[in-house]
Design goal:
The complex is a heterodimer of chains A (114) and B (110). Chain A contains no helices and eleven strands. With 114 residues, chain A is mainly beta. In chain B, the strands form two sheets. A five-stranded mixed beta sheet of chain B has the order 1-9-8-3-4, with no helix packed on it. Classes of the chains: A mainly beta (114), B mainly beta (110).
Chain lengths: 114, 110
């Protein structure tokens, strides 16, 4: 089945130690998104790629970076995780050109910062 | 994107219809109404969307008022697996972003 895959599902890192979260898709969608969801809060968009074009949300901290080496893969890099970065990180894909904005989400990676 | 207002929580008896309201009084003409849900510890899942007309699919029905200032998501026969947070989102045609509000936590009771 076509899907959005996130690895690992659970990630533990130490305060200040760089961490990379991975997302892959078999849907061949143009757009890939990264959301942050803290406990009991709604998902919040960090940034997205439209093909190779990177679009950062205005309030996304510089500590968060992303890479998309090809259509299928997208990575979220947190350069120096703080305790406040502990959250669920959700990857999603979409095809905005179809006229409406349906997004397909992966299961998420839950990040713990010690 | 227009903002949405939803009740924070609702209960529904198993087998009954769940009617989830959403207010979006500042919606623009080119903005769709989307509904997503998020089951505990999973990513959000698309349910349905609409522009002006009522819509129905295998998961739910979406009723949009004539002035488009509010809508209702209807799950016709709620099951325990429908327990989730339901998000009503308004987003413009072709927009890349979905801005999630606080949503409604629906609990289906046996």
């Amino acid at each position: 089945d076509a899907m959005v895959i996130q690895n690992p599902r659970y990630q533990v890192t130490q305060f200040g130690k760089p961490v990379t979260l991975s997302c892959s898709q078999t849907l061949n969608h143009n757009v890939m998104y990264w959301y942050q969801q803290k406990s009991s809060q709604a998902p919040k968009l960090l940034f997205h790629y439209y093909d190779k074009d990177f679009n950062n949300e205005a309030d996304t901290p510089d500590n968060f970076q992303s890479r998309r080496p090809n259509t299928s893969f997208c990575f979220l890099d947190i350069r120096s995780p703080g305790l406040g970065d502990a959250a669920m990180y959700l990857c999603a894909t979409g095809i905005p050109g179809q006229g409406f904005n349906e997004q397909f989400f992966g299961p998420g990676t839950r990040l713990t910062v010690l | 994107d227009a903002k949405t207002t939803q009740p924070p929580s609702m209960d529904c008896a198993e087998g009954r219809a769940a009617n989830l309201p959403c207010n979006h009084s500042t919606i623009s003409g080119n903005e769709y109404v989307y509904w997503y849900r998020q089951i505990h510890s999973q990513g959000p899942q698309y349910i349905i969307h609409g522009l002006k007309n009522n819509e129905t699919n295998e998961m739910a029905s979406l009723i949009i008022t004539e002035d488009r200032k509010s809508s209702t998501l209807i799950l016709p026969h709620a099951t325990l697996r429908d327990t989730a947070v339901y998000y009503c989102i308004v987003s413009a045609t072709g927009a890349n972003n979905l801005f999630f509000g606080t949503g409604t936590r629906l609990t289906v009771i046996p």
